[in-house]
Amino acid sequence: xxxxxxxxxxxxxxxxxxxxxxxxxxxxxxxxxxxxxxxxxxxxxxxxxxxxxxxxxxxxxxxxxxxxxxxxxxxxxxxxxxxxxxxxxxxxxxxxxxxxxxxxxxx
Length: 107
Hints:
alpha/beta; globular; 4-stranded mixed β-sheet; 45% strand
């Protein structure tokens, strides 16, 4: 089992944590929502949960709750800028279908 970040994604998270002045890493998980059933959720972690699974990639810790892990195992997070838009991109090998708007997915 593994969650990885590209170098660009790790650099983005590192810069943001430095600007915040605190934080242990990034929490990555899923929530039930949208047309297809699941959506990704990201937040910065100040205090890890005792049940978190911890992955490290390019010096950045990624915390995942046990309920989310089966849906996102093997996912690589990238960070991309396209024109004025920027954000994380998820390369999840478990996705079977995505909604047309790209906000949710099904495994």
